[in-house]
Prior knowledge:
Number of helices: 18
Number of strands: 43
Helix content: 10-25%
Strand content: 25-35%
Bound molecules: flavin-adenine dinucleotide
Structural class: alpha+beta
Largest sheet: 10 strands, mixed
Amino acid sequence: MTSTPRVVIIGAGIVGCALADELTERGWTDVTVLDQGPLFATGGSSSHAPGLVFQTNPSKTMTEFARYTVEKYSALQLDGQWCFRQVGGLEVATTPERWADLHRKQGLATSWGVAAQLVDAEECVRLHPLLDRDRVLGGLHVPTDGLAKALRAGEAQARRAADRGARFVGHTPVLDVEHTGGRVTGVVTPEGVVPADVVVSCAGFWGQQVGRQVGLTVPLLPMAHQYARTGVVPGLTNDEALEASKPVLRHQDADLYYREHVDRVGIGYYGHRPMPVDIDGVPAPGEARTMPSMLDFSAEDFDPAWRESVSLLPALGATRVEEGFDGIFSFTPDGQALMGEHRELAGFWVAEAVWVTHSAGVARAMAEWLVEGQPRTDVHECDLHRFEDVQLTPEYVEARSVRSFVEVYDILHPLQPSGVLRDLRVSPFHSRQVALGAVFLESGGWERPHWYEANSRLLDGVALPERDDWSARYWSPVAAAEARATRDAVAMYDMTPLKHLEVSGPGALDLLQRLTTNDLAKSVGAVTYTLLLDEAGGVRSDLTVTRVREEEFQVMANGPLDLDWITRHLPADGSVRVDDVTGGWCCIGLWGPRARDVLQPLTRQDFSHTALKYFRGQEAVVCGVPVRALRLSYVGELGWELYTTADHGQRLWDGLWEAGQEHGIAAGGRSAFNSLRLEKGYRLWGTDMTTEHDPYEAGIGFAVRMGKGDFVGRAALEGRSAESVSRRLACLTLDDPSAVVLGKEPVHVDGRPSGYVTSAGYGYTVGRTVAYAWLPATHAVPGRQVEVEYFGKRLAATVQSEPLVDPEMARIRR
Ligand SMILES: Cc1cc2nc3c(=O)[nH]c(=O)nc-3n(C[C@H](O)[C@H](O)[C@H](O)COP(=O)(O)OP(=O)(O)OC[C@H]3O[C@@H](n4cnc5c(N)ncnc54)[C@H](O)[C@@H]3O)c2cc1C
């Protein structure tokens, strides 16, 4: 018999129990689950969770987690009692904005494979007779949503795990984590040390506290959220076993949700003032008046909720709030869960900030990660290491997590930036950008110009179709002028926020060769587009790597997860180091047919086509400051990325700007950039492709050199090719030049949902919207007619051969 690792799970809430089940099912049976509280009503959030499960989420990953939770808990029972009741979910709209948004949400559900129908007010009332017909404009009905009994589902999974050998121990706090040589060896409890090879913290809102035991920042904030129950409501069932028969209900216009508790109604409220909780002030299980996660009900905060509830569900007027509490659970800066392994302490894992809704899905992905080496679902949005350093400060975690609470039921535009803690990272060009009227959005803490109001002077002759209210948000016609300036003259783009890593040392080449797909064993000055894959051949990231010196590489990456991945693979012999130098450098993308006219007079180095070829780099002095110039272009035009250190940035910007005036130079923002890169077919990792796709499916097989020797993911790619794939990232254009979509919309083929849009934007050069979409390979054929659904409307679209602009590369190579 082969032995499996000894696993200790901290926390017997719904997540810990689900994980024990998933691990033991996969043969890891030496599992001990410890909880500081009694089993299974431990006193954590799961102990009182009302358990509403609404599956649809803007995130495909979260929707898949929820779908699996529904599937799994529907099949579970505890002593003959149900764990999931599929009463359906109904989200009602009481404002035109919400009604429109529910159309968008139905599109999301379709994209992610959840059946959902928009229903009129009459049907809403038929589904949920307590509703006041006159308050409701319509609703979104998801028949497979419903109610999870978190405690029952937890215990049912725990029993299955116990049958396979797992142990569950209550009243046992984990006081510390033991380790030697950078690996966990066990956990310390009052009864002694429990040895472990793997420790998974499923401590819910205590996550920060457990993280402190191992020097790990767990970016979550415990917050209180109000939940109340009414007295008996006329017309509800008195069948205890049935418990609920009407759909779980959301009234997001007023931050409210509802479920039945037999003949009473439970009301959850997110509209009250944010109530962050100091984790160190939470009483231990034995000391809490009720349980640690339940605070006294602050009744006055609930008053608006009650008034609104009686208005929406008039039958409540016959009763009152009989009981309530302020229940604690976790919020994170971006509203997503936290999953992953400590970087400095091998074997210490986290699965926290997880709703009941996603619990089984998260647990399954965690178990795959632990047992098989990686999750099958793309989890980058939930990865513990997705945050930049500045996003791990207590100030950031608190301010942004509070924001997540406030916005939890808001209608959020995909581009909507947070209103709090801005200007955390600005490039050296910031003051110049402000002077040009930059409209900034934020990413990774960086302020990034989306367009520049000063460019409205270039709008003459730009004719654009009218936009609907939604697609007009965070957009300006000025982006078209900036795109035109890039194609016709020259523009400068601030590329500073790109993650800039330096990988150096005698082992640097070997490491990068082993981690990436393309051949990097090239001469100094070579620039290579290459991919990080996981062992299953899924695309973890795409990188642009420049061989700066024999033993030094500049790696332009997608974000902190790339740094994390490379760091984890550093050889133990110290022959390679990796440094994140993003903040110390800056970069201007100078692109357009006049780019050489601007640059050449500012430098003594030769920037002719023959002297510096496409995908080559050279050190140069430009405007009197040292610059690293890489001949690359994300926008499909002649030009260079010009890197310099932050101190020289402003001089470089000013020099280019001044010299560019006679050539019609414009500053360009992300909005124009996105349009140009879509026209050129450049994929955006994390949006267009993830670990769920291989390079051939994603259309980037050209970056794979199977012949170069072994690399991570190579074995999985054996036998695969662009010809053999069953799905493809396809380029579509919308047939109607005035139609616009933004991303994540469903694509219908022959009237059936068959795929979804990844990213989209108006192609100002081609005069219509360009959308990339995942489609079955049989349909991803140029000329194929499809339909993209946008707010309930079907827009005709055509699959195109790509790229749409300059397929011969004549504009770049000159
Ligand atoms: C009022 C309210 C309503 C909610 N409604 C919903 C809903 O409708 N739908 C939904 O999906 N979600 C809902 N949630 C959220 C949901 O309840 C939680 O996200 C979920 O239960 C968290 O599960 P968990 O297992 O991660 O955490 P918990 O259930 O809190 O479990 C963590 C466990 O870790 C233990 N622990 C912590 N530290 C230690 C230690 N050092 N040693 C040993 N044990 C330790 C704790 O005792 C606890 O049992 C609601 C939350 C609240 C408060």
